[in-house]
Amino acid sequence: MTDELTPDEEALRDEARATADEPPKPVDGTADLPDEVKDGDLSDEEDDE
Amino acid sequence: MTVPSRARWQPQGPASRCVIQGHALGWLNCTPTSFAMGIDKSTLGAKRLTGCDVRESTGDVAGGTTLLQCEPFAEKAGVKVDVYVGSKVVPPYWLAVQMQAGRGCVLQGNTSALISTPFRSTGSGVNHAAWVNDVRGGKLGEPAEALVYDPAADGHQASWGKAAQGPAWWPWSRVIRFAHALHPWGDDDPRTLSSMGIDGVYVAVFPDTEPHVHLRYGASRTSPFPDRLRVNVPAVYTHSTPAYGTANRIEPRLHRDDLFVAFQRVTKPDAVWFGSHDGTRWIPKSKVRNIGGTQ
């Protein structure tokens, strides 16, 4: 699967690369969030195969 | 023209796909499988590892895994990954800009956001992770769509219907709904990022490895892009600008058969010069031979 970027998308790439080094802004309400979040158990999908 | 590099999609299931110390972990392996696809994309296919390779590196055979557990494996594979979790989750706008700049990410979310969509891959809502390879369309900070590699989207037939199959273009708004549906304290705790009004996402952002160029000094892109060259003289300086002179020589010198990957070229009165991707290093055409191609 390959898709060449259109000229407009190339321009958007350049615009994004010009600002991509800026660090993310802090998000409100996150002080108590855990760092470690495990992905869940999808074993139920096996039963249906 | 730029063509985004793309990973090869990998399924996480069935359970027997990853057995470690007697534990069948396939359906508990979405984050390691997503990391494996991220490493594939970020190395331009040079390192095609499996989700089970990543899982084994964590030493964890109990339940699922986290972004932080998988990140060291990527580093060992030479892929620098920035992980944003807990109090360091990032706003969707910032993530969108990173994606539009050519990066990819492993995004955590919950499949409850996919149940009523063509992208459904599970019977019920569960915390999950997927590789997001690239984005297209839209405007800065708000792409129209993202190419998502859901490792559970293997087309399996289930009592609830048929799972999605392989990579798919999701609306960017759906990507963020998936991320906001994450249950940070696990599936048994009803709180989600969205229900708590938190406009951040848990994500591991991979590097921008697309071949790209910052054209300087009136240069144009090489063809092919990039172009691989080798030194054909005993030793040669590269220069900080496309001009001879002792002041802009860069140490150390390159030696015969050393590789120089050229992204741009420019013709000056004294020589044709090939330049690096950011235009900070140049070498005269007469000192290299073309080995051709991008690989």
Helices, strands, pairings?
The complex is a heterodimer of chains A (49) and B (295).
Chain A: H1 7-19, H2 44-47
Chain B: E1 19-20, E2 23-24, H1 30-42, H2 51-58, H3 67-76, E3 82-84, H4 92-100, E4 105-110, E5 127-136, E6 145-149, E7 157-158, E8 161-162, E9 168-171, H5 172-180, E10 203-205, E11 220-221, E12 227-231, E13 235-239, E14 249-255, E15 259-262, E16 264-267, E17 272-275, E18 282-284, E19 288-290
Antiparallel strand pairs in B: 1-2, 3-10, 4-5, 4-10, 5-6, 6-9, 7-8, 11-16, 12-15, 12-19, 13-14, 16-17, 17-18
Helix pairs in contact in B: 1-2, 1-3, 2-3
Q: In terms of structural class, how would the helical and strand content of chain A be classed?
A: mainly alpha
Q: How would you sum up the major sheet of chain A?
A: none
Number of helices of chain B: 5
Q: What's the overall average pLDDT of chain A, rounded?
A: 86
The amount of helix of chain B comes to 10-25%
Q: For this entry, what is the oligomeric state of its chains?
A: heterodimer
SSE-based structural type of chain B = alpha+beta
Number of strands of chain A: 0
